[in-house]
Amino acid sequence: MSVLPRRTTAFPNSNFLADTETGSLPEVLTHPDVPLVRPAAYFRWQPAMAWCLAVIMSPIVLPLTVFLVLLVRLTSPGPGLYRQLRVGKNGKLFWIYKIRTMYCDAEKETGPVWTAENDPRITPVGRMLRRFHLDELPQLLNVLKGEMTLIGPRPERPEFAQVLAKAIPGYLQRCAVLPGITGLAQINLPPDSDLDSVRRKLVLDLEYIERGNFWLDARIFLCTALKLVGLPGLRIARWLGLTRTVRVPDWMRHGAISDTNIPKTYTDAVSHSVSGPHNGHRRPFPMRWTPVRKPR
Questions:
Q1: Span 3-18, average pLDDT
Q2: pTM of model > 0.85
């Protein structure tokens, strides 16, 4: 964890995957054993729209952020804000800003690890902030800097991304667009806890990248805003048509399928229809699927 008072004189090398077994980022993104993700044309202008909305939201978000930062500082020793390196669009690294929800030096002994349920490293105030996702408010600054957008795949830490890129085929295709503060995966699924939870979110991230549009973003934004005020997120998601039954394809687990079974695009490969998997043309897709639902 890197807190704000610390300074750095050089930005980290953006080609953070150059030393992995899978090679550089472009090679991973075009791996022959996974379907190719084609971002929707909507993402050509979505960041500009998100930037304008962030400017409008700033007068409301800034005072609330200042209040929460002061609350954190008064209830536990240490700074109210902290920053972490995250992986952005095309593998570029950037600093993400968040309100501190853990005790200082929480990863001193363990190093970077996923947050567990009832994690003792989280402060009482931090638990409340995480429940309503208020710790993410400072990321509006990342949106204004052009490093993030409001809706999109959540940016991962490079320490985890290196491992996940080797363990899950097609993982880095989620870096084809700017990362977001919230997204389709966050609406439907809980925080990551293991590889299978990452695969489930990846399914939704890649769906969003290929099918993103203004109406989908508007519903995700509204659902997130209503969750911030304490309304039940999953119930709202059902009302807005955002719930998904996630099916993880075999190639995402093993990375080895025959050439004849490789679909041309990710949209052809994945369907979230409850009636059964198909390839976008209502013909059975020749692949075994494992249905997975979010636990109640």
A1: 35
A2: no
Whether the CB-CB separation of 139 and 149 falls below 8 Å is answered with no
- The whole-number average pLDDT for the span 72-100 is 92
E strand spans, the chain: 2-3, 81-87, 93-99, 149-151, 180-182, 246-249, 289-292
Is residue 138 within 8 A of residue 97, CB to CB? The reply is: yes
As a whole number of angstroms, the distance between CA 20 and CA 164 comes to 11
pLDDT at 113: 59
In the block, tokens 């807190």 appear at 3
Cβ 85 vs Cβ 155: under 8 Å: no
Determine the Cα–Cα distance for residues 256 and 34; give it in Å rounded to an integer: 8
**Cα 87 from Cα 26, distance rounded (Å):** 14
State yes or no: pLDDT of 26 exceeds 90: no
Q: Look at 274 and 157; give whichever has higher pLDDT.
A: 157
- Confidence at residue 190, expressed as pLDDT on a 0 to 100 scale: 86
Distances (CA, A) of 151 to 46, 99, 154, 184: 9, 19, 9, 8
CA nearest to 171, candidates 209, 216, 142: 209
31 has a pLDDT exceeding 60: no
Helix 195-211 and helix 158-167, axial crossing angle in degrees, nearest 10: 90
- At CA 172, angle to CA 169 and CA 178, rounded to 5? 155
pLDDT at 227: 85
How far is 137 from 166, CA to CA, in rounded Å?
31
Amino acid at 81: L
pLDDT band at 53 (very low <50, low <70, confident <90, very high): very high
> Does residue 248 sit in helix, strand or coil?
strand
